[in-house]
Design a protein that fits this description.
- This protein is α+β, with helices and mostly antiparallel strands.
- It has a single domain, classed as Rossmann fold (3-Layer(aba) Sandwich), CATH 3.40.50.
């Protein structure tokens, strides 16, 4: 869930993620996304610019959360911290991203250091994180993204 602090200041969030990772599907939004990454060794750092109530074009690869979602899509961002891309654990796939500045570069030419991570996924442990706010009215396909997570929960718990 979102919050006005860092993962270290988020109460029991880090402990809860560590306890439940791999046992139940997890979806972290904003601060929760950052906390998931931090539990698995990533560094959380200041974003290039503060994104409080700003919309941005988010690019993605088709993963479980983005099935049926346009690429790119508009998402609402409300954060000043991001995952340092080079520190993200290898068990996670970056499934969505923004470029800090407008770029004509295709996703094939962008390096990990050229992006701000907007979504991560660990398919084996059913852990997902999104930096943007899918619940916001200004996020296109936000309900689709949340529905995709609910479908994942159903298929993960049925197995």
């Amino acid at each position: 869930s979102p919050g006005p602090c860092t993962p270290n200041e988020s109460g029991i969030t880090l402990a809860a993620i560590a306890e439940f990772a791999g046992k139940i599907p997890l979806l972290g939004v904003c601060l929760g996304h950052q906390a998931i990454a931090q539990v698995f060794g990533a560094t959380i750092t200041n974003a290039t610019t503060i994104k409080h109530g700003k919309t941005a074009q988010v690019n993605h690869i088709t993963g479980r959360l983005f099935k049926g979602v346009a690429d790119p899509f508009t998402a609402t961002r409300y954060h000043s911290l991001i995952i340092e891309p080079s520190t993200l654990s290898a068990n996670f796939t970056v499934t969505a991203w923004c470029t800090p500045v407008q770029s004509d570069a295709s996703s094939a030419t962008l390096s990990k250091d050229d992006i701000e991570i907007m979504a991560i996924e660990d398919e084996q442990q059913h852990i997902y994180g999104v930096q943007f706010h899918p619940e916001s009215l200004l996020t296109e396909h936000g309900h689709d993204i949340l529905d995709n997570f609910l479908r994942c929960m159903e298929s993960c718990t049925a197995a």
